[in-house]
Structures are given as C-alpha cells and as structure tokens.
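Worked example (supplementary).
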Amino acid sequence: GDSVTQMEGPVTLSEEACLTINCTYTATGYPSLFWYVQYPGEGLQLLLKATKADDKGSNKGFEATYRKETTSFHLEKGSVQVSDSAVYFCALSASSNTGKLIFGQGTTLQVKP
Amino acid sequence: DAGVIQSPRHEVTEMGQEVTLRCKPISGHDYLFWYRQTMMRGLELLIYFNNNVPIDDSGMPEDRFSAKMPNASFSTLKIQPSEPRDSAVYFCASSLIGASGNTIYFGEGSWLTVV
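After joint prediction of all chains, the assembly is encoded as:
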C-alpha cells in the first residue's frame, strides 16, 4: 500500500544553518505530495505542496521538489530561524483518490540561537 | 473564511466519564477526518466521512469510540467510557476532493486528559 517515510529526528541546527528533511514515498499512480508543519501547541498547517512530477512547492523560504524518479519530496531551507522550530510532516494523497492523506511519522526540528 | 472549528480546546475528565468532541468543517468541504496524536503513536487516522457517510473506521481503536456526522456542518467523536490511555490531542480536518490536490485543513485540536 501507499506509505511515506521521513528521516528520524530530532534535527538540531543553529540559526542560519541549511535544512534538509528527507521524505520518500511509495505509491501507485500519481499522488499529490505535501509538507505540513505543527508548531508547539497548535494543529497542523499546510506548508507547501506539489501535485505532479517535477513541480516545486515553496512557502516561507521552504522548498520541496516532487521527484518521481527517486520517489522523494525532500524539504529544504537555506537559512533556518528559531521560529522554524516545529514538527514537520510529509504526506501524500492516497492514489485511490479517496481524499485521505497518508502521513509520515513527523520530524522534529529544533533551531538554536 | 473560517477554518475547521473544534470544541472543546481542552478537556480534563475522570476515567469512566463520557467525552464528546465536536467539529465544524469548512463550509463546502465533502470529506471530514478525525485524527489522534500521541507521543508514542504519532498521528493516527481514526475515521473519515465523505458526504456525511463513514467511509473507513478501521482506525477507531475500540468500541468505546464512536463518531457521527449528522449533517455537512457538524461531527462528533465520542469516547464512552474514557480511560487514561485515551489522553491525546484529537484533530478534526476537512477537505474538498479534487481541489488543491486534496489539501486537508486541520482544526487546532482538542487536548484531552483523562485522569
């Protein structure tokens, strides 16, 4: 079945460091791919998405490119801030188009001043 | 536009009591999801509805859990009787199939503590 695998955390970085959080997926067909972010004490918010191969989603300085050949959707940011500290979830839309999203286990990012 | 609205935001209850969590999805959305989040198990899909009809409840942990969606603008998740291991954050989410690549929008969660 469809699945999402993220790198395990926590990831600890200093402010202004480069960030990469790896995400790979297994799916039939052509799923849409998402990154959600959860700040402490809050719900999940959509960060960015890509709906077809080679699309690049971007938002708030974060980027991720839908790579069908490597079945990956890695999240990147060139310079992180303390305010980026959160849990990041990679997800895909179920290929059967049921409306359901399949989430990875989440990666905690801690950015230190 | 108003997002997904959940209530209560926080609930502390005693073991054995009934707990009812409520959700108002985004107007016009045709899917509604209930998720549970814990440190141990992460984010789990409990049940989801399409056009008010339950589609998949395989994630509901036990018969103590039940969910209803009497109309397009309201859903409840009920736990009866509650147990300490039910302590978690419960998220309601909604989406519109085919729109924006099936983006799901989450509420802010109901933080449940069972003592």
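Two points are worth noting when inspecting this output. The two ends of chain B are 36 Å apart (CA to CA). Chain B has a mean pLDDT of 92.
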